[in-house]
## 1
Amino acid sequence: VSQSRYNKLVDKSGNVIGDSLKDVVSKVPKEKATSFWNYMLNLHNIDRAREGKNVFSGVTSEQSQNTVNKLLKENPEFEKIGKSITDWITKFRKAWGVDTGVLDEDIFNELNKTYKNYIPTNRVFTEIEKVGRGANNVSGKFIDLNTPIKRATGSERDINDPIENIAQLLNRIVRAAKNNEVGQDLLNAVRENPKNMSIVTG
């Protein structure tokens, strides 16, 4: 849903509002993928650790900042690529979260201020745990791109492949937006013709 037939990011009306996730993520050098996602996770941890919600157990904001500085010194291109990914995620969340009524705009803005370099950090669960959570691999539904990094050591549990985590975020928000749209349509139908709808819903 998040990518039109032209392989672009679209809003709920089908208007193109950006590049596809595949195009944005493909800018990550394959030979540096592990270092890049380590950079992204530490960049996010700078803000998360200040809130006591560490991405990496026991890793402080200062330690993550040092890691980020070191990685940027060795790979200055990471900064531009990373910003393009976080900007894409923000644009997607705005279009499919805020603009569809799933996410309150004030909360969205506050989250963006608090976590300026947000990327999802879903944790690895065992097969037994996945059954209760209804989890599955959804990355293939949105992008055809795998990364060499499959998990990163995080807080208590390892972190899933970052690209799969982004794809799962897309799936959750789009599903919520579609469910919300159906609910709003039903509510409007009841308001416009309550007698007939009472017969239908019986």
## 2
Amino acid sequence: LTYTHLVERLRPKEGRLLLAHFMHDFTPSDWPQIHKSETVDGYEPFCNFISNRFDYLVYGGITAQRDGEALQKRRGWKVPSGDPVALGFDIKPGSPLDPQDDRAYLKELGVTSDFVIAVGTLEPRKNHETLYRAYLLMQQRGLLNKPLQMIFVGKPGWNNDDFLTTLAADERVKGGIITVNPSDRGLDVLYRRALFTLLPSFYEGWSLPLPES
């Protein structure tokens, strides 16, 4: 069965069923340069199908709804009723554990000073390279006389091998910029102990990266 047939089978012969779909964002359409080509190629046909076959859309944030409805109007598709949801805003911080445990964990990661964190998959659209260049610029201008480490928190994603190779080979930032993919427990330690968070993304179409930061 095709996806179309599966969707149509959900509709009752009598009465009414509201067909709803959740849409994270529309960046593969609006920002194709920061996505895989196979994602970009299939995304607008998918959005076309969802827009014209579903009655109601739930969007991952106000920005996603704005972008989605703008795309629907540009392409002449149906613009279903919809509402945004605020993803991640009910996240509660973990209970502080023994400070000695925190220090031991940070030492294990190589954290030896005050630090800041950027949370997100290590891929081009998250724009970690700008933070790397900023760190080098601060070094050149003598702004890091007091030690400060920058921690990239997340796992490697698409099309970032060259940047990660450069980062690992650059002796100027050795020990200064650290990449980690922690457990939830480790992430909680990093959030609680960081001076502040950084969000350098080129564009975010849904709300989760904001509470992540």
